[in-house]
Amino acid sequence: MLGFLKNPVVVTAEINVNLVVLTVMGLISRLWGLSYPRAVVFDEVYYGQFVSLYMKRIFFVDDSGPPFGHMLLALGGYLGGFDGNFLWNRIGAEYSMNVPVWSLRLLPALAGALCIPLAYQILVELQFSHCAALGGALLILLENSLITQSRFMLLESILIFFILLAVLSYLKFYNLQRHSSFSASWWVWLLLTGVACSCAVGVKYMGLFTYMLLLAIAGLHFWQMLGNQNLSNVSLLCHFLARGLALIIIPVAMYLSFFYVHLTLLYRSGPHDQIMTSAFQASLEGGLARITQGQPLEVAYGSQITLRNVLGKPMQCWLHSHTNTYPIRYENGRGSSHQQQVTCYPFKDVNNWWIVKDPGMQQLVVSNPPRPVRHGHIVQLVHGITTRYLNTHDVAAPLSPHSQEVSCYIDYNVSMPAQNLWRVEIVNRESDTDVWKTILSEVRFVHVNTSAVLKLSGASLPEWGYRQLEVVGEKLSKGYHQSMVWNVEEHRYGKSQEQKEREVELHSPTQMDISKNLSFMAKFTELQWKILTLKNEDTEHKYSSSALDWITMDTNIAYWLHPTSGAQIHLLGNVLTWASANVAAVIYVCLSLWYLVRRRRKIYDIPEDAWQLWVSAGEICVGGWAVNYLPFFLMEKTLFLYHYLPALTFQILLIPIVLQHLSDYLCRSLLPKTMFRALIVAWFSSVYLVYSTFSPVTYGEPSLSVAELKDLRWKDSWNILIRKQ
Known about the structure:
The chain crosses the membrane at residues 15-33, 67-88, 100-120, 154-174, 186-203, 208-226, 246-267, 575-597, 641-662, 674-694. By secondary structure, the chain is of the alpha+beta class. Among the domains are: 294-514, Trefoil (Acidic Fibroblast Growth Factor, subunit A) (Trefoil); 538-724, no CATH class. It contains 20 helices and 14 strands. Helix 7 packs parallel to helix 9 (207-226). The N and C termini lie far apart (86 Å).
């Protein structure tokens, strides 16, 4: 039984020394002096705010993309024991002792370091030599811009890591496809492709470009499989389902999980709540939840309510009225009804309260039992403080003359009768008998007499309207818009029939206890929509640039400047590497066109397997560059040089591919090969020299003199900071 103990247990392992050395060198280059400078560097002022909010569990919305990248940065803060207490208000501010700078910058640095062995493995999986793979990895290692971007609390290095991981995983999966389909390793790499794609998209929406590229390549490969007569229909179906599961279903599920974790962590009310709906705000701890907790759920006749416009633009506001009337004549000479003004007011106020009245009864209190208002019911809305009825008529609105004026009716004993009946239409109803619900129901108020809909125009009234927002009656025929939709935010059941008692009641808090928790999918849908549609005003930035500036690196970004010395950090690339990458791309395109024309004439300059490798390399490297660069020409947003880094990474990988191809098929005799290799060594030495020259502004040390800084200004368009003497 114990015979197996007679021989020693031997474990053998293959270690790729190239891979180990590259990984160690990558870690050294990215982690060395990581805490320096101990000050806020460029966009750390932006991402740091979100890290602090995560530490304090306070809800926020970032319109730049999904939350996964922010959560990874917050993880670094959590591991370092960060309490979130730091004021991220300016670039260059010194970090206080409670900020774990090294920990906050660790994950981006690790991601940047791991991009180097990933680049090596990608080139190996593309069937190029280990020498070419080593060269490509070293170019990534010595790329100054990638070093700078990975050493701070920024997201680009994490994005590039997941992009390269997705590409590598797919290539490994594809290479296994030929001889071991549906094996354990085949499944691992296929699933990892989907996971990495989801993570890339979850860090920044730029990851979607590479994800779409891999889906297209996978679709092309599956199309080629359809022509394989050795595969049965059942086998093809299994291949299709496996790819659908790994490349579509799992990424979607993971993307949802990022938001689930995000919303679970951020359960407290914060400064970004106000752009969300009342229902979303009420689901958070504190803030609106403190006000709305205990409100009645169903709106009934006699209910006292505040009505918030769902659009939330140009700012959140509530239906409002006050004793002031519209001017008899406006500045342009048009006349008004001189009725009581109705506006949308962006602050909580007692004049935001309205009473839902049954037109057939005089009472302004809720009966016992309450009579709920349903979809399609006719109501009157009575202003709580002035007791005047919400009204609209065929009079032009003050700032929107093609729409109707909305007012609270004053009886001047003239031929202008009250028109104050409104039909309640629940937009998000499940059936035509739905009850109007607090916070949850989104409703339109359709004027019975004119069929106009109560709408926020968004225009600011003049001084006579206290700069409050205009509310109008808009014809239904002009279409549906969120500015026509309102929801009840605060709500109580009115109990006082006398006006003085009712005014006291309007100032008092609600008392009944009903929970209004949204489902995760409802919260996800709303938050996702806000991220996609909420756009901050893009302002011209000192270091913003156009996509055309990136190819030739005609721009740079000053990330940090020492307060007293000349030490500074810039986002600047290795000029020689960028130029070589552009040349490699041009050579690849020209050679590809030449080969295609020659192949059309039945002239085959290179073997078929070499042609297939050449095409596969182009799909990944040229395709990766194109999909990560060209879309920026269509974007209307402020652009920076760091947006080009994912595209640049793919373009750098193309350099060793082109060099090996030229060496193998254009330098056919020994002498040209030897000379070509000597040129490559000289060129590579120059790449290292450029890297070394710009290292002081990559790492921020040592401090350079004015003369040395001027010498680094290789292009007139570069903004190297020089202090006045």
